[in-house]
Amino acid sequence: MIKPSNSNFWQSIINSVKSGWGKKKPALPKAKKINCRKVWELMDQYADLMVLGQDPRVLLPDVYQHLLACPKCKEELQALIRAIEADK
Ligand SMILES: [Zn+2]
Fold first, then answer.
1. Which of 2, 7, 31, 37 is packed most tightly, with the most Cβ within 10 A?
2. Distance between Cα 51 and ligand 1 center (Å)
3. Which domain holds residue 75?
4. pTM (predicted TM-score)
5. What is d(CA 84, CA 88) in angstroms, rounded to the nearest whole number?
6. What is the pLDDT of residues 52-62, one digit of tens each?
């Protein structure tokens, strides 16, 4: 079971966005624009995927796209992940 430490995990996401992303255009599904409410509906799923070491960017690209632009939702997600990790 992969158990990412929260800060490092986010840093690696941020780094991957800063480095390759946008330049190389990885083969990710096309993301739709969704609003915060929709993100909150999917956030449980998203957090589970992250905790399980899956790649939610591929499985839930809409949410990922939103998180890049919305600090509020990103904070919510981080709190949720902390809660899940603490629960284990
Ligand atoms: Zn949002």
1. 31
2. 20
3. 32-88
4. 0.66
5. 7
6. 999 999 999 99
